[in-house]
Structures are given as C-alpha cells and as structure tokens.
Design brief:
With 214 residues, this protein is of the alpha/beta class. The chain contains one helix and 25 strands. Strand 24 and strand 25 form a beta hairpin.
C-alpha cells in the first residue's frame, strides 16, 4: 500500500512537471514562430530550426520528437501548416531551401520525412501512413570524375492533391503530381504523375485503375 501511494504521488508530480514544461515551451514557441495561431500544441521534445520561417494556422498538433526546419531562400515561410494539421511522432519536415505548403486538415503518421527542396504542395484532407518519404529533389550524377555530392541537384517539385491517402512506406520522387481523390498503396514508389481518382496499389506504375466506375 505505501508503495502504491508513493507511486501515485510521483506520477502526479511528474504530470505537473510535464505541464509546466509544456506551458513554458508553448510560450517560447508563440514568440519564436513567425505566424502561430491559437489554439496549437507542439510537444516540448520537438526541435524547431529557423522558426521565423514557419507559419502555423489554428488547431495544429505537432507530436513528440518531430523536427521542423523552415529554411527557405525563395519564400518568407519555408513551412506553412494549414489549420488542423496533425503530425505524429518522429517526423522530419525540412524546406531545404524550397518550401513545404500544407493546405490543412491533413494527418501525418510516424516517421514521415518531407524534403521540400523543389517545393512540396499538399492539398486538404491528405493522409500519410507511417514511414512515408516525399523527396522534392534529385542528385546529378553524370560525371565520373566529380563526387556525386559535388555535382549539384535538380529540383522540380511535388504536388499532392486533395483527399489523397498514402499508405505506409510510400515514396514520392521529385517531379511527381498526384491528382485529387487518389489512393497510393503501402510500399509504392511513385515515379510519375498519377491522374485524379486513381488507385496505385503496388510498385509497378502500370497497375492503375479507376476508383470510381462510370
């Protein structure tokens, strides 16, 4: 019985400590992030790099250990979150000189990585499964004399429409546009444009079919 009582006291103490720490973190973020609308929730373990280049509309939730880097050379805000965007744990969003523009009411599962070098535009009501990679750039590798890391890169950009569901472990490569109302099956690598109202259910780009039959 005493051990249980001590455990309850410690649990209450830790919860109070967590709430105080979170409150302080929220207050700091309110002044660091360039545009931040109430209400919002950013976990105290998150890392915010170049927060003056982040814009977050009301109702956004950023869960534990997520990293945001708004660095952009072409826009005031390298990362823009539309209202009611929900990001789960361990995600990494980096504008990488370009931008990441999320219209809102989107959900990102754990370990999602978005590289915004060429620009990433995401519509409304988009769902990301766990471990998705959205990579808006590509290394040059024509020369055999120069190391690949010194040959620069190509940045075309990625666009994802409204009402799209990307299953777990989906990879979207640079230059791709995914139309509205698409479903991308788990483990798919998207290398070319996907027209609206399409299911792409495995890695072979020819395996497309219409969601809705006329």
């Amino acid at each position: 019985m005493p051990n249980k009582l001590v455990g309850n006291i410690l649990a209450k103490y830790l919860e109070i400590h967590r709430r105080i720490r979170q409150s302080i973190f929220n207050s700091v973020n309110y002044y660091l992030i360039d545009e931040l609308e109430m209400p919002f929730e950013i976990h105290s373990s998150c890392v915010l790099r170049t927060p003056r280049q982040v814009c977050m509309k009301s109702g956004c939730v950023i869960n534990a250990r997520t990293i945001l880097n708004g660095r952009s050379t072409i826009r005031k805000h390298g990362i823009t979150f539309g209202g009611d965007t929900y990001i789960k744990e361990n995600c990494y969003l980096d504008a990488y000189g370009g931008f990441i523009d999320i219209a809102g009411q989107c959900a990102f599962a754990q370990n999602t990585i978005i590289h915004g070098g060429g620009g990433v535009t995401i519509g409304r009501n988009v769902i990301f499964g766990a471990n998705c990679y959205i990579i808006a750039s590509n290394h040059n590798f024509r020369s055999r004399e120069l190391p690949i890391m010194l040959q620069g890169d190509v940045r075309k950009g990625i666009t994802i429409g409204d009402n799209v569901w990307l299953g777990g472990n989906v990879i979207v490569l640079d230059g791709v546009t995914i139309g509205n109302n698409c479903v991308i099956g788990a483990g798919t690598i998207v290398r070319k444009d996907i027209k609206p109202d399409t299911i792409l259910y495995d890695k072979r780009q020819s395996d497309n079919r219409e969601i809705f039959d006329d």
